[in-house]
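Reopening this ticket.

The earlier resolution said the output was attached, but the attachment link was broken on my side. Pasting everything inline this time so it's all in one place.
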Amino acid sequence: MLDGLRSYDPKNLYSVIKDSWQQGESGWNSSFSLNINASEISNIIITGLGGSAISGDLMKNFLGAELKKPLIVNRTYSLPEFADEHTLVIASSYSGNTEETISALNTALSRRCKIIVLTTGGEAGRIAIENGLHTVPLQKGFQPRYALYNSFFTLLRVFQKLGITSITDSEVLNLISMLKDLGEEWSAESGLAFKTAVELKGFTPVIYSATDFNEAAGRRFKGQLNENSKLHAWSAEYPEMNHNEIVGWETFGAQGVKYKIVNLYDEEMHPRVKRRFEIINNLLNNEKIDIIKIDGKKESLRERLIEMVYLCDWISYFLALLNEKDPGEIDFIHHLKDKMAEG
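Inline output:
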């Protein structure tokens, strides 16, 4: 079945996802120098959009309690008013031409922020060269969302060089090796990713994760379902959803939408959050709402986080094929960019 479905993948993104470990290897081995004194940094802003921003979200979850300085991911044209010469701004634009990121980068220059630019070139690259900014190259040749593993491991190397994380080469090489092994396993029709995609076909996924724990995986999965699978999906987090969204389920049957819950779960979640998952699952099961549980199987929390993101990437890819859609096509985004360019 899968061999026939791959006709909907003319760009061979199957191989791109399977070889994600190579992106990680390239990012971790990226050659660059940084002349920034981390002791002078009060806070960190990663500014970017779409696939270029998600690595920042993932980094917050990945570093967790090790992160001793405030870090926010900025997704707009400006920067928070507190951004100043003690702020490290990491401008992340894969193409280098994301207008919101370029605007925020120029604001960072005017505020005399410490700046690092992650890009393959474009206008952001030009600004970086003209102003003598630290530039960290990203691996070329991908759509931004398909370059996550290069972006993430490059950013992780940046943080290591700055002394923000003490992660070791052996830990990172273990993660990269894990991606390679999982790519072999999940690229097969018999694998968990394809089977989960089959379960989701015909449904609108509602993804639940946990705040300050693995919500980056939820946001990533939603975006991948949108762009790859050409599918609406919704993402919310525990415990916040217990204070509002929970009530919306009272009328789901009258909405005429076939929903399916996807819980991104981990045994190391806060005990009270785990209890909330349990109560809501029982409530929704009583309403005959199907629930899919996705949880990592690896030993460490960091491994399980990357494992979960990678599994969801595969699911969104296979769901695109099952929906008879090209997982690389983003026509509406191109249309928007063309119209925005007109002024």
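Reporter confirms the inline version is readable. DSSP finds 14 helices and nine strands in the chain. The two ends are 46 Å apart (CA to CA).
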